[in-house]
Amino acid sequence: MSRSAPLSDWFCEHTSTLRGFDVDAPLDDLEPLRDIVGDARVVALGEGAHFVREFTHARQRMLRFLAERCGFTVVAFEFGFSEAAALDHWLRGHGDDADLATVGGTTNAGVNPELVHWLRRHNRTSAHPLRFVGVDTPTAGGQLRPALEPLADYLREVDPEVVILVERALAIADRFTGTSVAVAAPKWAQLDNAEQDALTASLTRLLLRFRSLEPLYVSRSDQAGYDRALRHLEAALHADYMFTAMRELFAGRGLEGDTSVRDHYMAESLRWHLDRAESGTRIVLAAHNNHIQKTPVYFDGELAALPMGYYLHLLLGDDYRALAQTHTAEHVAEMHPSEDTETGFTVTEERLDTPEPGSVEAAVIDAGHGAEISLTSLRNAPSEGLDSIRTQSSSLSTPVPRAFDAVLTSPTTTTYHTASLHDER
Asked: Which positions, given as ranges, span the membrane (predicted)?
């Protein structure tokens, strides 16, 4: 018997087929998702690559199902914590389409024009609207201003004498700002070491003072205002750390697990939202597969990161469920660093090798679902043998049933090249 035969049998028994990607179609084909989700408070919907239209559409259909049939009321995205409030305001029907141009944020993780216009329409017409919140550092780590401007506004109210520290940080940060960390990190690396250290020092001094004077700050404002301002400050400090981490990573000398700093911030942001939500609130979390998986991320045997899903699984246990998205297509969108582009990378289509035995994709194909849209529950799946899943244009080795509770597989991938939240749909 081949290595893939037991997996093929498992996938045959635990896989259902979906009708298509029409986001407005009836949802009955997604009913198997109900058992996968169970009573979990947080359900993560992943994607195996950014800039893939099928993943966006499948996620929208699952969002509808979880909102309309399972009572989820909040969607959290791999999107800046600091920018999300303005986008949520727009998504809940305030202003007109032109006002979207004033909203910042990244499109890298699927918050693209197609999705946001659909969410706005859904919230306007559905009996089950969704609040939108962010969990990430500002603009995929490319800017500090979205976090530091509201921080400065708060400090002018409670501690105006230290606003100068924010202004010093902004004066430095504005010299290397970009649309993602792929743009900002190389520019940051061109600063003098003294300027780099001055930025970190200003943010660190602010954080220590902020935490020490919480009673004073709260007496001059309120607890909610203090908590949100502190989260903005922590966003800026985590983003600052990632400039060094990404520079070292790009240079091939990154510290083991160093990018965990960003994932830990995202996990703590999700905890922040949960702690302040009404009793019974259920959250859908949307991010890359590598961020939502429950197992550590290794590349070439080296620890790359403890992902957000790893921390959330420690925090929530079975109250956290992770659903990956992958595909059986022969090509997929890939992001390549490029200092000559506005985003810091180019998006191209990369040809892929045939899925190898032991991969999710090979098991789906062997089970006869390679040409269909399929949903497979991995709960109670065989503990050995299923040990890789596609990620971007490569594969990630991980014990897949421990990493994810389910996987949705598309037979096709269509690349979109949206670089701005404000691009045409």
From this structure: none
